[in-house]
Amino acid sequence: MSEMVYVSPNGVVIDLVKPGDWSRRIAYAGVSGLVGAKTSSPLTAVNVPGQVPVGFRTTEMKGTLMLQVVGGPSESVDALVSEVNREFVSDAYGTLVLSRESAPRLNARVRLDGAIDFPKSFLDSGDCDAEVGVPVICDDGYWATDVLSGADSATVTNPGDVFIWPSIVWKGAGSVALPSGAVVTLPNAPDWRRLSLDPYTSHEVTDMSGMVDESLSDATAQLSLGEGVPQRQSRTYLTEGQVRLEWKIGYLNPWR
């Protein structure tokens, strides 16, 4: 049995596919899109047949959730439609969570991508249900597993579709030997801190709530960190002290 829920930026959980009773649910065939894709820049040459794809890039992922909203004794269809409109917003991320018996749980950060359609049935008509279309966009471009972690000798294997950039999580003093053999000596952290190897945020140290630690970020500014894990490959990181590695595996198609 598959389940899907949406967790709004406010922390409100809306069941979309769940066994048993429900009040807001994805209608039959009600998910359109929400599968990632890659683009490339082809290289061609005169008098040479075909092309060579280079520069693969994961693009944003878009889709539409068609919700079947059903009123009941405790909540009217009008109130439930209002909740859907409140909890999907364009300037903050919610999370779609897909759980399946035969696969790891996957998450996609999404935000509203345009206007939510007016309900197909007029709410004052006395109908007990309404269809509401919600367009969403995932700027990351993929579905991610829950966080995986390892310490001491952490081997990161990437069976997914996108490059993995692990994060270093540590407290106190410690070090990490990167796959190349380069050793990163971490500054002394008074509490748990996170340092991503992602080139977008590399050298930015945050606390566990995501707030930037300016002093520790300055201390890591000169470190050479950019070592991740390509698709279909593995890399090993060696940690010392209260240090662990965290990562997620990304998939373009959540049903693969």
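[next item in queue]
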Amino acid sequence: MEQLLQTERNTRNTIRKHEEQIKELEDEVASLKQEKESILVFHETFTHLENILKNDCHIDLRKDLEPFTKVFYDFKEKEYNVTSIVHLYEKASKIRMGYQD
């Protein structure tokens, strides 16, 4: 009987440990999904900015990436919101060209 109780305790402990592992894995998956979304947003912003700079300013980020990267690093260091800056620039460009959002 004692052996059966010990087996039950061991089984319950094993189940509890597995449930904790499942929770940790679920948290990690959620974190990875959030990271993926952030990367996608950054990629979309970069692509959009790349097109604006190439078409409007004749700046090719693929050739001049290092100096431009420094600009982004400086923005981040000063806690500027790059996405907001790009949207404001785009809105100003549309207004300047006579378009409305």
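[queue empty]
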